Amino acid sequence: MAKITFIQPDGTQDVAEAELGMTVMEAAKQSDVAGIDAECGGSCACATCHVYVDAAWREKVGKAANMEEDMLDFAFDVREESRLSCQIRITLELDGLIVRVPAKQF
Amino acid sequence: MSSDSSADAPIETDVVIIGAGPVGLFAVFELGLVDAKCHVIDILPKVGGQCAELYPEKPIYDVPGLPVVTGQELTDRLMEQIKPFGAEMHLGEQLNSLRRGDDGRFYMGTDAGTQFIAKSVVIAAGGGSFTPKRPPLSGIEAFEGTSVHYAVRRMETLRGKDVMIVGGGDSALDWTLSLAPIANSLTLVHRRDEFRGAPHSVDQMRALVAAGKVRLLIGQMTGLQGDNGELQTVTVKTASGDEAVTCNALLPFFGLTMKLGPIADWGLNLHENLISVDTERFETNEKGIFAIGDINWYPGKLKLILSGFHEAALMAQAAAKIVNPDKKVTFQYTTSSSSLQKKLGVK
Ligand SMILES: Cc1cc2nc3c(=O)[nH]c(=O)nc-3n(C[C@H](O)[C@H](O)[C@H](O)COP(=O)(O)OP(=O)(O)OC[C@H]3O[C@@H](n4cnc5c(N)ncnc54)[C@H](O)[C@@H]3O)c2cc1C
Ligand code: FES
């Protein structure tokens, strides 16, 4: 299991217990984290699972692949630390991961 | 297979299918086998619904008999499968109105003015109409239709305007190329200096930028300023800070999302934005109006293509009795029935 913390725009935190191998989006959905819409169910086809990866975790999480970068064009307020949470697979290394939920999904 | 949509006289047919997604397309097949003639309407300019619009190149692994098939391949195969029935497709039109006439038939109209009269209606509308995504900028609604446009119906209305186009795909690029010659100024805004559009269009856009005809701004919109529905400036956040760009015509291209749309107004029983149906006929609370595929709800519903196909088969049996009340529907296999094979054009 791995712990993933989601920080909402108002500062409140949700902690999700996730199984290894799940995606961060699935962890959010399973724990009813607000603000992760995930309309396409994790197919990298909607960009409504956008999150900002905490600075301390960016290196471990890594960069978006090309297809994900393309999809990020459809997200709002995209930043350096933007990722689509359905494209981040949870490994032991990511236990403790902190991501921020954007104020708005498109 | 497209038609003259602006025909004045209503089109009379057996069944109107709303939605050309995989389930609407397969409904043509099942209805064809029971001798019901169909017209299909979709707001998208192409058939295939979610499969063609959202994931044309992604693999689907759970369509029985096809170990792997992409969204577009499945769409193409369905089109081939329904070809014998010659259903007419009305694409790029949204079905807006649906009411029952005194004669018991259904009267329908699209936003393009096409009218239909049918004995039965099949709603295969998936997650609803595909509509352009609205950037979540505060106050944008006030400018929509006047200064903010999600589609361009007549280019002339943008002549002499200070146009801003936002996005990095083909729509953004195509409109940049088309509008640059007639706009007073044209700014293309994209979040990164890489474009998803066709390489040829990217080259043409870059040439316009080099010639000073188009301004390319790498950044993102953060705010809109103006009053009385007239946009004056758009704030764009760039690497070197915020800039207020003069703009009185904004064209944001951020893809499509599905919205239930006019279906909510047709007096049908809904369950959380889905149409409630029974599981024998997949009929709504209005006799003669069926709902199949992602748009319907019943206990145990799964939003799967294969479930939609099953629903289409059962619906067709029920619809057949409405379309041809005097004809007995006998259950037959396509493998062995010569009459079905004749309809399919294989005998
Ligand atoms: C990324 C992704 C991956 C998927 N993977 C699978 C999978 O592996 N297996 C699987 O079984 N399913 C999968 N699905 C789900 C599958 O695509 C849907 O179940 C299927 O598309 C539903 O088909 P449909 O015909 O009911 O509706 P849709 O495909 O949603 O089509 C409905 C059409 O109706 C149109 N429409 C709606 N209202 C109107 C109106 N008023 N006027 C005109 N047109 C209208 C819409 O524009 C749309 O084109 C996936 C979905 C997504 C997004
Ligand atoms: S859930 Fe749709 S892109 Fe991640």
> Using DSSP, what is the number of strands of chain A?
5
The SS-based structural class of chain A is alpha+beta
Quote the beta fraction of chain B.
Answer: 25-35%
Number of helices of chain B: 7
Q: Terminal Cα separation of chain A, in Å? A: 31 Å
Shape of chain A: globular
Low-confidence stretches of chain B: none
| Interface with most residues | A-B, 17 and 19 residues
Explain what this protein looks like in three dimensions.
The complex is a heterodimer of chains A (106) and B (347). Chain A has 106 residues and is an alpha+beta fold. Chain A has helices spanning 24-30, 58-61, 66-72; strands at 2-7, 13-18, 50-53, 82-84, 97-100. Chain A has a single domain, classed as Beta-grasp domain (Ubiquitin-like (UB roll)). Chain A is built from three helices and five strands; from the N terminus they run E-E-H-E-H-H-E-E. Chain A is globular, with a radius of gyration of 12 Å. Chain B is an alpha/beta fold and 347 residues long. Chain B folds into two domains: 11-130 and 257-343, FAD/NAD(P)-binding domain (3-Layer(bba) Sandwich), CATH 3.50.50.60; 134-254, FAD/NAD(P)-binding domain (3-Layer(bba) Sandwich). Chain B has seven helices and 20 strands. Chain B has helices spanning 22-33, 49-53, 71-82, 170-179, 199-210, 305-323, 338-344; strands at residues 11-18, 38-42, 59-60, 69-70, 88-91, 95-100, 106-110, 115-123, 129-132, 162-166, 185-190, 215-227, 230-238, 241-246, 249-252, 256-259, 270-271, 274-276, 289-291, 296-297. In chain B, strands 1, 2, 5, 6, 7, 8 and 19 form a seven-stranded mixed sheet that branches. In chain B, strands 14-13-12-11-10-15 form a six-stranded mixed sheet, with helices on one face. Chain B is elongated. The two termini of chain B are 24 Å apart. The relative contact order of chain B is 0.16. The mean pLDDT of chain B is 95. The chains are: A alpha+beta (106), B alpha/beta (347). The A-B interface holds A 39-40, 43, 45-47, 69-70, 72-74, 76-78, 104-106 and B 54-55, 58, 133, 135-136, 167-169, 190-192, 194, 196, 220, 222, 254-255, 257. FE2/S2 (inorganic) cluster is lined by residues 25, 38-40, 42-49, 71, 84, 86 of chain A.
